[in-house]
Amino acid sequence: MVSPAEWEVMETIWKHGSRAARDVYASLQTEKTWDIKTVRTLLARLVEKGALEYDQIGNSYLYRAAYTREQLICGEVREVAKRSLDGSISSLFAAFLQEEQLTPEELEKMQNLLNSARKEEP
Questions:
Q1: Which residues are CB-contacts of 122 (< 8 A; sequence separation ≥ 6)?
Q2: CATH of domain 4-65
């Protein structure tokens, strides 16, 4: 699972593309008071988790996202379902629907996605 702080680093990479640690640090300085060591630690954790990849160029590393934002979100949702609901995405979906107040537009979008998924079944 990716922590909230790690998500912020990922958002920077997704927004700006491949970046060196110092560039990620500079991008986050307007919002965070983290020092460069904290950013390097977060980058290392994201590499360990497989969310980031890197190329070594001389003495520095150029980090890039291993997954799109949507792919990482799907992976995180699958992980929550696996840990808490025996892997049942439908149970996760049902729990979400019971707890959230969705607009008619959101419900229609979800219905369209379900209909589309049903059509794609073999």
A1: none
A2: 1.10.10.10
What DSSP assignment string belongs to 49-80? TTSEEEEEETTEEEEEESS-HHHHHHHHHHHH
The CA radius of gyration of the chain, in Å to the nearest whole number, is 18
Q: pTM for the complete prediction? A: 0.77
pLDDT of the residue at 107: 86
Q: Kindly report the number of other CB atoms within 10 A of residue 10's CB atom.
A: 22
Residue 49 phi, psi dihedral angles, 5° rounding? -80, -10
- Write out 91-110 in H/E/C secondary structure: HHHHHHHHHCCCCHHHHHHH
